[in-house]
């Protein structure tokens, strides 16, 4: 287990674009200033419709205490916005970090992207579809991607199978992805694996949603078939929300694994 050898400092509510609260980010950094540290940008979950950066203070505190600069971002949500606008704003946030993070102790050449649930989907989508960073005006700066119980890696397959059922989530998802099957395909990282140029680390709960347990091994398989670097670990006994809330404890071993991944790359 990695020890927490740093104290941490929080810088709150910095604006990376112009949509008010939905375009704010928080930075958690080690208090020491002896070097520039690796950066982890976190995209929160919430079914693309809810939640906010502030909920994940514990990730920021714990990563900063372990020597990483952690950036938690807000982004625009449904029903006012759909997935593309969310992705474009996530790319804007990453550009802001690339341009500005050295002022806050982060290394702009050592940026990793992390997401939980819907945030995992957005992290993969922004990383894999070149149009998002192209619109932001930068080359993809992501050294590696960390997906914690990601939902929607193949939103096309999910909606195709569920749209005519009594699935309670479908009406909300259609607000995000519309009823257009072309949009479902465009929004599916599973269909853009050929664009991956960096390593992936994935964690999945043993008791999570069936769609996640079905899609993540297939995503891993397709990455390996395309000679991409990827790992997938199943955390037994954990449900979907517990996959992120377990990290409130700084001694949770997911921190060790994530830091090993970032240090390696």
From TrEMBL:
Residue intervals passing through the bilayer: none
Swiss-Prot/TrEMBL keywords: Hydrolase
Gene3D superfamilies for this protein: alpha/beta hydrolase
GO molecular function, one term: hydrolase activity
Pfam family, one: BD-FAE
BD-FAE-like domain ranges (all copies): 25-206
Protein known as: Esterase
Source organism per UniProt: Pedobacter psychrophilus
């Amino acid at each position: 287990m990695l020890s927490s050898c740093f104290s941490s400092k929080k810088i709150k509510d910095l604006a990376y674009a112009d949509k008010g609260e939905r375009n704010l980010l928080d930075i958690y950094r080690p208090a020491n200033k002896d070097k520039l540290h690796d950066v982890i940008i976190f995209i929160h979950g919430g079914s693309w419709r809810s939640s906010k950066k502030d909920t994940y203070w514990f990730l920021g505190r714990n990563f900063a205490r372990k020597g990483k600069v952690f950036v938690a971002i807000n982004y625009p949500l449904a029903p006012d916005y759909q997935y593309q606008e969310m992705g474009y704003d996530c790319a804007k946030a990453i550009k802001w970090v690339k341009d500005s993070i050295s002022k806050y102790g982060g290394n702009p050449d050592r940026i990793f992207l992390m997401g939980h649930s819907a945030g995992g989907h957005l992290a993969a989508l922004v990383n894999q579809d070149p149009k998002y960073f192209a619109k932001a005006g930068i080359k993809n700066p992501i050294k590696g991607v960390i997906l914690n119980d990601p939902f929607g890696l193949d939103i096309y397959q999910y909606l195709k199978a569920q749209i005519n059922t009594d699935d309670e989530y479908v009406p909300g998802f259609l607000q995000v992805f519309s009823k257009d099957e072309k949009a479902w395909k465009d929004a599916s990282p599973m269909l853009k694996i050929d664009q991956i140029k960096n390593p992936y680390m994935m964690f999945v709960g043993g008791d999570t949603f069936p769609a996640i347990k079905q899609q993540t091994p297939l995503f891993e398989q397709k990455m390996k078939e395309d000679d991409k670097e990827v790992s997938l670990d199943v955390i037994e006994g954990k449900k979907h929300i517990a996959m992120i809330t377990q990290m409130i404890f700084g001694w949770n071993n997911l921190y060790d694994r994530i830091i090993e991944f970032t240090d390696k790359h």
